[in-house]
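Entry under discussion copied across for reference:
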Amino acid sequence: MTSTVAFAQQEIGAISILPKVGFNIANFHGSDSDSDSRIGLVVGAEAEYQVTDMISVSAGVLYSMQGAKSSDKSDDYKVESTSKFDYINIPILANVYVYEGLAVKLGLQPAFNVKADYKISGHGYNESGSMSDFGIDAKSFDLSIPVGVSYEYKNYIVDARYNFGVTKVADHGDTKNSVFQFTFGYRFKL
């Protein structure tokens, strides 16, 4: 005989809202240049629907500060640049509860660019403005694949995700988003 153990935090059919706040460690992948991470805020909320004892689906809206910093160094000079991309992310996830309170997550995350700023300084430069001021066409849409894990204890939720960008952030090059995201939230049952 086989028995199934249910690890869901909610009853089947339950709906809950999860406001959350946290931070990103963002960078780019697919680029030829080396860059350093940008630490930024992430804040928003997700709604979750419990489909079965072990599986739920969630969708949310998050304001996410992303981008990267890079520097070009030589013996004679140093030039630093910072790319700031802020997005409205819409994570759509399947959540599988593998142990009481512990869920693994996988999904898709469309995002819309609301800010694309660039700053360059050093070796006679000290300029900042929008990407378009520097002749860079930032993409208005981004798509990522979020993979993560969360743990819930007494309605408090700690969530860690990696968002792997699959679309380019700008028209030039092959630069895509690479974001580690850590949030803390609370579940309100509806």
The chain has one domain: 15-189. The chain has no helices and eleven strands. The CA atoms of residues 31 and 175 lie 5 Å apart. The radius of gyration is 19 Å.
